[in-house]
Write a structure and sequence with these properties.
The protein is of the alpha/beta class. The chain has 11 helices and 10 strands. A hairpin with a 2-residue loop joins strand 1 and strand 2. The longest helix is centred in the middle third of the chain and has 21 residues. It is globular. The two termini are 33 Å apart. The model has no long low-confidence stretch (mean pLDDT 94).
């Protein structure tokens, strides 16, 4: 089902599009698996330095997990549902969160359930003024299963996250911005240009340094401050022996624009 997720190269940016608009880009198992395949390919492609992810059509980024498919797994039994649905979804959002190239989500409409959890896991997010978010899993009697009970409280705080998780109420892009779920809200027509502009602002800098920053932040969030500072030192040590550091220092001293590997 390779058409479930599309990929397009725009210079050094890979544009990934969830492509099931007739299903509001719901995340069936094939879509999850294809997304992971594409991330593996992008990781190995030195010509791609950042990722922008969006949804096909004007209605949805993603309405979340494919409930019809999930229902069949539930009917088989708990082990099947955990393996096929929960673990698969958690693997996908964990891959996004720890990906060493910046991932920017462009939320173009509905971002419910798993769609919201992808937004939580991504490094950065831009929302259309038509975007709408929700944590509606409680409406079908389950907790979020792609990491939503863990990442949203870290982003929004425990009480604000619990209100959304326990009510299932939807909320708009401005509220998502207040909660720290997205970095910016723009008009619908400006969504992809704004996401690409953000990606290009990152691409001015060393991709190796960006990778170290992402790794330090992602790993450090779940540790003590002392352990986090150790991770930070490790990432500095990893960078200190690279050409990019010497190039950046020389460019700063010479008052010129640095030329990093891959630019």
């Amino acid at each position: 089902m390779k058409d479930n997720v599309l990929i397009e190269r725009q210079g050094q940016i890979a544009l990934i599009t969830l492509n099931r608009p007739e299903k509001l880009n719901a995340l069936d198992y094939a879509t999850n698996d294809r997304l992971l395949e594409l991330l593996d390919e992008i990781e190995a492609d030195g010509g791609v330095r950042a990722v922008v992810m969006t949804g096909a059509g004007d209605r949805a980024f993603s309405a979340g997990g494919d409930i019809h498919e999930f229902t069949q797994s539930i009917k088989v039994g708990t082990d099947e549902a955990v393996r096929e649905f929960c673990r698969r979804g958690q693997q996908m959002t964990a891959r996004i969160e720890a990906f060493e190239k910046p991932i920017i989500v462009a939320v173009n409409g509905i971002a419910f359930g798993g769609g919201c959890e992808i937004t939580e896991a991504a490094h950065l997010a831009v929302a259309s003024d038509k975007a709408i978010f929700a944590k509606p899993e409680i409406n079908i009697g389950i907790p979020p299963t792609f990491g939503g009970t863990q990442r949203l409280p870290r982003l929004a705080g425990r009480k604000r996250a619990l209100e959304l998780l326990l009510t299932g109420d939807s909320f708009g892009p401005d509220r998502a911005y207040e909660l720290g779920l997205v970095n910016k809200v723009v008009s619908h027509d400006e969504l992809l240009p704004a996401a690409m502009e953000l990606a290009n602002r990152i691409l001015r800098h060393s991709s190796l340094a960006a990778s170290c920053i992402i790794t330090a932040v992602t790993r450090g969030l779940n540790t003590t401050i002392e352990e986090g500072l150790l991770i930070e030192r490790e990432q500095f040590a990893r960078m200190s022996v690279t050409h990019d550091v010497l190039e950046g220092l020389d460019a700063w001293i010479s008052r010129r624009t640095p030329i990093y590997a891959g630019r």
